[in-house]
Amino acid sequence: MPNGKILALLSSGLLVLAAAGCSDSDRAAAPAAGSELSQEQIVAVRDYIKRTWVTLTRSHEDLLAAAPDPKVEREPGQPWMLYVSQQENLEEVRAHIGAALSSEDAHQLAVRRLPPDGRVEIQGLLYLPQPYVVPGGRFNEMYGWDSYFIQVGLLQDDELHLAKNMADNFLYEIRHYGTILNANRTYYLTRSQPPFLTQMLLGVYDQTRDTDWLAAAWPAVEKYYEFWTAPPHLTKATGLSRYYDFGEGPAPEVIADERDSQGRTHYDRVREYYRTTRVTEYPLERFYDREKDELTDLFYKGDRSMRESGFDPSNRFGPFNAAIVLYNPVCLNSLLFAMEQQAARIREILGDAEGVKVWKERATQRRDAVNKYLWDEASGMYLDYEFETGERRRYPFATTFYPLWVGLANPEQAARVRENLSFFEAPGGLLTSTAETGNQWDAPFGWAPLQMIAVQGLLRYGHRQDAQRLARKFLALVTKEFEEHGVIVEKYDVVRRESDVSAGIRYGYDSNEVGFGWTNAVYLALLSEIGK
């Protein structure tokens, strides 16, 4: 919704929001009185968001703002590395960048061709031709699934040109780096992130109606779809897909960055957990060699693949998500169902009736497989499926709302999922899971993308009162914390209604990054939903 329309609704009183709501769960009890949001409060947050799009944008003119990476170490005086794909004309790229930078800035940047195998001695930024918006804080590059939600916010905020740039950069990544990357750093070359490409393309097309641009994008759509639906991402026994990083061993950015106050890496803390805790969720010997006190190759494969999922870490697939490569996840297969439906729409726009049939049939087959393997009638939830054992993982997680968001569920299934809302609803919005584990993607934390997906999924099936209550709670929480701290951040404790989360996070990184791209975007999207 453009800025003017939101302000008009505010003036009419339709967007005065209350965080109070009702639920059968104690965790969803109404926050304290006085949490209504005024027009002035919302305008202040919107102004911050509008300014932040500028500060989070990276382009050739400010490459020295994009190149620094707080996640890896750099020798003093060492130039920042920028790698260019094998298909590019290296000298043309150097000339283009040189024209955009001062000579002083250009000397601080080393532009190199990326080796064919992607292995580099010094980690660095991967070249992208168009400006893009980064999430914020330690995440100073263009991320896979963050960018979809950021683009939603840009489109809400009348930033169409930048929204199109984001989509064009992803098409460039597919053509030059093989897939949409976790992010455009060299240590991310072995994995993608949850697939939102077709939604981003249609988000732009719906405003531009540029069929030539859409047609030119199509080969990249097919290539990216194949990435997710061919082995090893495909599990042939179910016809469904999984997350799977192509790299081996420890993730470089984890060793360099995810350290606690004692200097222990994430992997050190995991080994300590395995040494001292009885694990029953999976055969521990597959992931940890107790005699050698070493994590196994399968653990590192799972750790990397967890990062492809974006949910890093939680205990959704067992402690530290170590067993993720053994599962067909609800989130990924819901997004691929959406991709198949959206691909059918693109073929229809481009006048390919036969192609429409092919893609609709693929969507139908995936819907049937999801309902066969992932729908759990007893609990009324969509659950991740372990294809080796043939069992669903009994771990309530907010991804159960994904099938509602993409329209995969039937009305009865959607109603059953809605009946479980009280397990997830908290004073500040939607919990990621129902378990407190010390991981940031578990309780008591809530993340903006899952708020939007749940709210829009509930609305899609007519559960408007629940959706608006959730939206109001999260909007009120973000506004309260913005007024107290002057910033919008990556994640929130939705039980305490606070943004100070470090004390509750023991695994992964415990910071709460400022910016923050997808929270900004979801704030605008939820305002729009309330306005409707």
Structure write-up:
By secondary structure, the protein is mainly α. It is 46% helix and 8% strand. The protein has 20 helices and 18 strands. The protein has helices at residues 3-12, 39-55, 63-66, 90-100, 103-106, 144-156, 160-177, 197-208, 211-229, 252-257, 266-276, 297-309, 330-349, 353-373, 402-405, 411-419, 421-424, 448-460, 464-485, 517-531, and strands at 57-58, 80-84, 109-113, 125-126, 132-133, 234-235, 240-241, 288-289, 294-295, 327-328, 375-376, 381-382, 385-386, 391-392, 425-426, 429-430, 445-447, 491-493. The protein has a three-stranded parallel β-sheet with strand order 3-2-4. Strand 13 and strand 14 (391-392) form a beta hairpin. Helix 13 (330-349) packs antiparallel against helix 14 (353-373) and helix 18 packs antiparallel against helix 19. The protein is globular and about 65 Å long. 50% of the residues are buried. The model is unreliable at 1-27 and 29-34 (pLDDT under 50).
